[in-house]
Amino acid sequence: MSDKQEKGAMQVDVQLVRDLAALLDDTNLTEIEVEDGDRKIRVARKAGGGQAAPAYIPAPVAAAPVAAPAAAAPAAEEAAAPAGTPVKSPIVGTAYLSAEPGAAPFVRIGAQVKEGDTLLIVEAMKVMNAIPSPASGKIVAILVDNGQPVEYDQPLVVIG
């Protein structure tokens, strides 16, 4: 029996780890995890935004928490955010600024919107979720790019 075939020896699918790392780069995600039976593979981007770092974690063991970015960073972003009412994402997904590729965006900076007007779409699990304006006003800022992954409660648009 060779060392790699010993009972309990770790066997990692290197190509899978490479594919997961490439998927992080393609989607701008910070972390992805795949579980297969008693094995769990987590690939996470370093805090500095560098190359993805593969990690092997046995399923029974809890994954170590990923270090959050410096606490000052979110506070600085909020301080620099435009004045107005932020419209936040109700779900995790991908933001789209128009109904289909090549179509005009739902809103532009400076546009007047009424309560209930569609501001953008967040796609989650192949379902397109229209994000309505919670109030009437003027679009002060659009904080996401077309096709950008968004997190729950992430500010998307600011209405002044």
Helix/strand layout:
Layout: H1 14-27, E1 31-36, E2 39-45, E3 52-58, H2 72-80, E4 85-88, E5 93-96, E6 112-113, E7 118-124, E8 127-132, E9 137-142, E10 148-150, E11 155-159
Antiparallel strand pairs: 1-2, 2-3, 4-11, 5-7, 5-10, 6-9, 7-8, 9-11
Polypeptide structure, described:
Residues 1-5 and 75-79 have low confidence and may be disordered. The chain contains two helices and eleven strands; from the N terminus they run H-E-E-E-H-E-E-E-E-E-E-E-E. It folds into two domains: 8-58, no CATH class; 83-159, Beta Barrel (OB fold (Dihydrolipoamide Acetyltransferase, E2P)), CATH 2.40.50. The protein starts with 13 loop residues before the first helix and ends with a strand. By secondary structure, the protein is of the alpha+beta class. It is elongated. The chain has a four-stranded antiparallel beta sheet, with no helix packed on it. The protein has a four-stranded antiparallel beta sheet with strand order 8-7-5-10, with no helix packed on it. The longest helix is centred in the N-terminal third of the chain and has 14 residues, at 14-27.
Quick recap of the structure?
The protein is α+β, with helices and mostly antiparallel strands and 160 residues long. The protein has two helices and eleven strands; from the N terminus they run αβββαββββββββ. A hairpin with a 2-residue loop joins β7 (118-124) and β8 (127-132).
